[in-house]
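Could you help me review a protein record that somebody else here produced? What it holds is a sequence and that sequence's fold in token form. I have pasted the whole thing underneath without changing anything:
=====
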Amino acid sequence: MRRLTACGSRARVAGAMRLVAFVLAGLAAIAGVRLAAAQQQPSSEPILRVETGMHTAPILAAATDVAGHILATASHDRTVRLWSLADGAPIRVLRPPIGNGDEGWLNAVAVSPDGKSAVAAGYTGYQWEKLVCLYLFDATSGELLRRIPGLPNAVSQLAWSPDGRLIAAALMRGGIRIFRTSDGE
């Protein structure tokens, strides 16, 4: 086997190595783009959660319906808990999609005036959309009704309009956004 000692041979080897590095970087970038495109939806992989019957992290927001029947609390434990104000008993747990790091931390919650829906947000949806979203839940069944995407950063406060047709989201930076509850626009 011939030893590469000539300047021309070293240059060819160095050039080939740069080409290989460039191709590998390109393949990694393509894979990254495909991976990012695939993460436009929350992961469907199961995440183990232990149900304790209470929040396991700080409660950062609380809200009630107009009649004062339901209390909703939102926490960095990535849950919204609904409670009966009449006797303090738990009603149900609302669970938005969660992910790694801060993904799923809830800073804000609001209950619709009629008590039939709840909306929650915080550090929500950014991991797969690179934009924050609101989660609208059916308070009776706990079903996630809709994700309302498109917010540039985390939500700090939420409020329903008195007629229940609009949701206001106050952002940590960037003002306030108003959405229709019927279609998320």
Summary: Residues 1-7, 19-39 have pLDDT under 50 and may be disordered. The chain has two domains: 1-38, 59-180. The domain at 59-180 is CATH 2.130.10.10 (Methylamine Dehydrogenase; Chain H).
